[in-house]
């Protein structure tokens, strides 16, 4: 018996991530006629997902988990859920859901899978031995498991990486990020007072936060009149997490302000003059497309993901990764030139509306679903 509506199941690790990055897509799929389920670890956003009319399937998992017995248990639970739900299509986001979910889907007989690589992250940026060993294992698993369905990447470098692994080009789709609501994130006049430079991100070393603090210290010592703000919570399950103690020490030193996690990011961006993300590597950072939509100039690193949002000299400035002096110089240039900030902010808004709107990204992803089904 054929279902009246195709069933779409999202598998992501965290409920907060689903709400911030995939909820608009799920609602668009629902409106397009899909029955939508969400499989995730539930903490604070379960009720929001249910209120949206989506079926919520809680799943306990650890993003850092490496215990073989615990990970086998997770895989077995996944297979059981996939067999019970029998979705027509599964959309899996991030490395662990992609790998475990692809194996579970194969064993459960699910015909159609979309895997989204939202960035290669700590495994491919950390110089640690553990990261290198796990990275090699992930590459091997990619080769074995990603030869069916469709694979979404967010930037050309990740696309090239997967092509080198032997994944056919016909299986890979380049869709730039998860989109931004260009009505919610809209330009506003700069606030009065000294320029405020904001870094909006999870508090992770590989977001370039150490370099940002070092650049802020250098500019403060040089007498540059500006404020420097970190916005976002630490992520305890990420190996690159910065401790609350370290964040408190920086704030006590008077170098940066720490605003913590915020849910009102459109209002937060309206308080900034410049947005900065000196990350080591990204998929395509949502914070930067939100900043562009809000009409704020950006300073970021010339690395995959970041360079897709910023055209150097047009809507912001690109600097080499881990280069504190270059970062400080770029920030100084924008701190001291309000007309340059205005021109770059206006260009960023134009780019966000043209290339990164939520409507465009949802439409491209729904077209991929229809192609598979």
N- to C-terminal separation?
17 Å
The helix-and-strand class reads alpha/beta
* Arithmetic mean of pLDDT: 92
Provide the CATH top-level class of the largest domain: Alpha Beta
DSSP helical segment count: 14
CATH homologous superfamily of the largest domain - what is it?
Glycogen Phosphorylase B
H/E topology pattern: EHEHEHEHEHHEHEEHEHEHEHEEHHH
How many domains comprise the coordinates? 2
By CATH, the architecture of the largest domain is named 3-Layer(aba) Sandwich
Strand order of the largest sheet: 3-2-1-4-5-6-7
Residue share in helix: 40-55%
* Poorly predicted residue ranges: none
CA gyration radius, whole angstroms = 21 Å
Give a short summary of the structure.
The chain is α/β, with parallel strands linked by helices and 373 residues long. It has helices at 15-31, 46-51, 68-85, 95-108, 121-125, 129-145, 156-164, 209-221, 244-253, 265-269, 286-293, 324-335, 338-355, 358-372, and strands at 7-14, 35-41, 55-58, 89-93, 112-116, 150-153, 172-174, 196-200, 227-231, 257-260, 274-277, 298-301, 316-319.
Structure, explained:
The chain is α/β, with parallel strands linked by helices. It folds into two domains: 7-179 and 357-372, 3-Layer(aba) Sandwich (Rossmann fold), CATH 3.40.50; 196-355, 3-Layer(aba) Sandwich (Rossmann fold). Helix content is 45%, strand content 17%. It has 14 helices and 13 strands. The strands form two sheets. Strands 3-2-1-4-5-6-7 form a seven-stranded parallel β-sheet, with helices on both faces. It has a six-stranded parallel β-sheet with strand order 10-9-8-11-12-13, sandwiched between helices. Helix 8 (209-221) links the parallel strand 8 (196-200) and strand 9. Helix 3 (68-85) crosses helix 4 (95-108) and helix 8 (209-221) crosses helix 12. The chain is globular. The model has no long low-confidence stretch (mean pLDDT 92).
